[in-house]
Protein backbone atom coordinates (compact mmCIF):
# COMPACT_ATOMS: atom_id res chain seq x y z
CA UNK A 1 0.00 0.00 0.00
CA UNK A 2 2.79 2.44 0.89
CA UNK A 3 4.56 2.02 -2.45
CA UNK A 4 1.32 2.41 -4.41
CA UNK A 5 0.36 5.54 -2.47
CA UNK A 6 3.82 6.99 -3.08
CA UNK A 7 3.70 6.05 -6.76
CA UNK A 8 0.31 7.68 -7.15
CA UNK A 9 1.78 10.90 -5.77
CA UNK A 10 -0.59 11.06 -2.82
CA UNK A 11 2.04 12.41 -0.45
CA UNK A 12 3.89 11.53 2.71
CA UNK A 13 0.84 11.92 4.96
CA UNK A 14 -1.09 9.31 2.98
CA UNK A 15 1.93 7.00 3.06
CA UNK A 16 2.30 7.45 6.83
CA UNK A 17 -1.40 6.72 7.30
CA UNK A 18 -1.12 3.49 5.30
CA UNK A 19 1.92 2.31 7.25
CA UNK A 20 0.47 3.23 10.65
CA UNK A 21 -2.94 1.71 10.05
CA UNK A 22 -1.37 -1.23 8.23
CA UNK A 23 0.65 -2.00 11.34
CA UNK A 24 -2.60 -2.12 13.33
CA UNK A 25 -3.92 -4.69 10.86
CA UNK A 26 -0.73 -6.75 11.18
CA UNK A 27 -1.14 -6.69 14.96
CA UNK A 28 -4.73 -7.91 14.65
CA UNK A 29 -3.80 -10.79 12.36
CA UNK A 30 -0.77 -11.63 14.49
CA UNK A 31 -2.93 -11.74 17.62
CA UNK A 32 -5.39 -14.07 15.88
CA UNK A 33 -2.52 -16.50 15.29
CA UNK A 34 -1.04 -16.15 18.77
CA UNK A 35 1.85 -13.80 17.93
CA UNK A 36 3.47 -12.07 20.87
CA UNK A 37 3.07 -8.26 20.77
CA UNK A 38 6.75 -7.74 21.59
CA UNK A 39 7.71 -9.73 18.49
CA UNK A 40 5.64 -7.43 16.30
CA UNK A 41 7.20 -4.36 17.95
CA UNK A 42 10.76 -5.59 17.26
CA UNK A 43 13.05 -5.71 14.26
CA UNK A 44 11.28 -8.68 12.69
CA UNK A 45 7.91 -6.91 12.91
CA UNK A 46 7.89 -3.13 12.92
CA UNK A 47 11.50 -2.90 11.72
CA UNK A 48 10.81 -5.03 8.65
CA UNK A 49 7.54 -3.19 7.99
CA UNK A 50 9.26 0.21 7.99
CA UNK A 51 11.93 -0.97 5.55
CA UNK A 52 9.40 -2.71 3.32
CA UNK A 53 7.21 0.40 3.21
CA UNK A 54 9.92 2.93 2.45
CA UNK A 55 12.78 1.51 0.42
CA UNK A 56 13.02 0.93 -3.31
CA UNK A 57 15.32 -1.97 -2.38
CA UNK A 58 12.17 -3.71 -1.16
CA UNK A 59 10.48 -5.68 -3.94
CA UNK A 60 7.10 -4.98 -2.32
CA UNK A 61 7.67 -1.21 -2.24
CA UNK A 62 9.12 -1.17 -5.79
CA UNK A 63 6.15 -3.19 -7.09
CA UNK A 64 3.66 -0.89 -5.38
CA UNK A 65 5.52 2.18 -6.63
CA UNK A 66 5.27 0.95 -10.23
CA UNK A 67 1.61 0.04 -9.71
CA UNK A 68 0.82 3.49 -8.32
CA UNK A 69 2.67 5.15 -11.21
CA UNK A 70 0.70 3.11 -13.72
CA UNK A 71 3.85 1.49 -15.10
CA UNK A 72 3.84 -1.99 -16.63
CA UNK A 73 4.36 -4.67 -14.00
CA UNK A 74 5.56 -7.34 -16.41
CA UNK A 75 9.23 -8.00 -15.90
CA UNK A 76 9.34 -6.74 -12.33
CA UNK A 77 10.64 -9.21 -9.78
CA UNK A 78 7.66 -10.77 -8.05
CA UNK A 79 7.09 -9.28 -4.63
CA UNK A 80 5.98 -11.71 -1.94
CA UNK A 81 3.16 -9.33 -1.05
CA UNK A 82 1.43 -9.93 -4.39
CA UNK A 83 0.28 -13.51 -3.78
CA UNK A 84 0.09 -12.91 -0.02
CA UNK A 85 -2.45 -10.07 -0.27
CA UNK A 86 -5.35 -12.24 -1.44
CA UNK A 87 -4.53 -14.92 1.14
CA UNK A 88 -4.30 -12.37 3.97
CA UNK A 89 -7.58 -10.77 2.87
CA UNK A 90 -9.28 -14.17 2.84
CA UNK A 91 -7.94 -15.02 6.32
CA UNK A 92 -9.10 -11.65 7.67
CA UNK A 93 -12.58 -12.24 6.26
CA UNK A 94 -12.76 -15.83 7.55
CA UNK A 95 -11.65 -14.78 11.04
CA UNK A 96 -13.71 -11.58 11.08
CA UNK A 97 -10.61 -9.39 11.46
CA UNK A 98 -11.00 -5.74 10.47
CA UNK A 99 -8.28 -5.32 7.82
CA UNK A 100 -9.43 -2.74 5.26
CA UNK A 101 -5.94 -1.94 3.94
CA UNK A 102 -5.19 -5.60 3.30
CA UNK A 103 -8.56 -5.95 1.54
CA UNK A 104 -7.86 -2.82 -0.51
CA UNK A 105 -4.42 -4.08 -1.59
CA UNK A 106 -5.95 -7.40 -2.68
CA UNK A 107 -8.64 -5.52 -4.64
CA UNK A 108 -6.06 -3.28 -6.33
CA UNK A 109 -3.98 -6.29 -7.33
CA UNK A 110 -6.96 -8.17 -8.77
CA UNK A 111 -8.01 -5.07 -10.72
CA UNK A 112 -11.26 -4.44 -8.85
CA UNK A 113 -10.30 -0.90 -7.78
CA UNK A 114 -7.60 1.68 -8.47
CA UNK A 115 -5.09 3.01 -5.97
CA UNK A 116 -6.92 6.34 -5.76
CA UNK A 117 -10.28 4.62 -5.24
CA UNK A 118 -8.78 2.50 -2.47
CA UNK A 119 -7.25 5.50 -0.69
CA UNK A 120 -10.51 7.44 -0.96
CA UNK A 121 -12.45 4.52 0.51
CA UNK A 122 -9.93 4.07 3.31
CA UNK A 123 -9.74 7.75 4.21
CA UNK A 124 -13.52 8.14 4.34
CA UNK A 125 -14.13 5.28 6.75
CA UNK A 126 -15.88 6.29 9.97
CA UNK A 127 -13.55 7.61 12.66
CA UNK A 128 -13.00 5.49 15.76
CA UNK A 129 -10.63 5.19 18.68
CA UNK A 130 -7.16 4.26 17.49
CA UNK A 131 -5.66 2.70 20.58
CA UNK A 132 -7.99 -0.13 21.56
CA UNK A 133 -8.50 -2.02 18.35
Q: State the total count of DSSP E strands.
A: 0
Number of contiguous helices: 8
In CATH, the architecture is Orthogonal Bundle
Low confidence ranges? none
Structural class: mainly alpha
CATH homology superfamily name: N-(1-d-carboxylethyl)-l-norvaline Dehydrogenase, domain 2
- The domain tally reads 1
CATH topology: N-(1-d-carboxylethyl)-l-norvaline Dehydrogenase, domain 2
Order of helices and strands: HHHHHHHH
The biggest sheet, with number of strands, parallel, antiparallel or mixed sense and barrel status, is: none
- Mind telling me the C-alpha Rg? 14 Å
Q: Work out the helicity level.
A: 55-70%
Overall shape: it is globular
Strand content: under 5%
First-to-last CA distance: 20 Å
For the record, what CATH class applies?
A: Mainly Alpha
Mean pLDDT: 91
Descriptive notes:
There is one protein chain. By secondary structure, the protein is mainly α. The protein has a single domain (2-123), classed as N-(1-d-carboxylethyl)-l-norvaline Dehydrogenase, domain 2 (Orthogonal Bundle). The chain contains eight helices and no strands. It has helices spanning 2-7, 12-32, 37-40, 43-52, 59-69, 81-94, 100-109, 115-123. The two termini are 20 Å apart.
Amino acid sequence: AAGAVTGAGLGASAQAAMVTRGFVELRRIGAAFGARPETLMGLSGLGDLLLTCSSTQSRNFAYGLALGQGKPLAGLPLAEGVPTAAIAARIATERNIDAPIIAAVAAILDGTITVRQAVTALMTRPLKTETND
